[in-house]
């Protein structure tokens, strides 16, 4: 059933891919043998940023650092709820130093930053729905973020956390398989989750928009929504049609180069929730 969706102005953090390359493989999408066109990557990323600004949102920029090619995936550096920043602690050593860059940004800008003791990859594995069940955090585990980090996040952020087990390594972060469309609605691909997690999602979100395998593999769920406008990978045409039928406005963008690192729209965009 479609209904009128209300967009809400958001504040985001992004990081230019000017040092982006694929020289190692820490997820199934990365292949160092496949060449990356960095000029094209920067151009596509720029179009994504322009799209978000054009929709009325504020985009802050994190300074990219040489030797940290995955910094473009800014969503992984922290998880922010109500002005409190739960910092990331990356699983793979290739990304470890990114956490310090994010911490420096947040502390410089006056945010309350809490360093993590447990392994977690920020908004890659955490999603927030402020109006669902009184304010709910969905949290993924199985490949990157450790389940104990879910308890730590709950203590730091003071919001109930629902743990969801990811079972397909191609969906190594929650944000590749599940997305928040508005303050109480999600879209997800059931096949990425354990049977128990699927049952939990059906109970909590009976009206969710269900994505199929084709769009999930096209990184369609790795999207950014302001409650009405949904910025998503242009390859996910089926999901775009489902979202439109549900009352949202799909805004397709092309991110072919950044997909080579195992990410798309959402991976590139952290939300700063004051």
UniProtKB/TrEMBL annotation:
SUPFAM superfamilies xrefs: Pentein
Annotated keywords: Hydrolase
Any GO molecular function: arginine deiminase activity
The keyword Hydrolase appears for this protein: yes
Domain of life: Bacteria
Hydrolase among keywords: yes
Pfam families documented for this protein: DDAH_eukar
GO biological process, one term: L-arginine deiminase pathway
NCBIfam families per record: DiMArgaseDdahMtb
Descriptive protein name: N-dimethylarginine dimethylaminohydrolase
Organism: Micromonospora polyrhachis
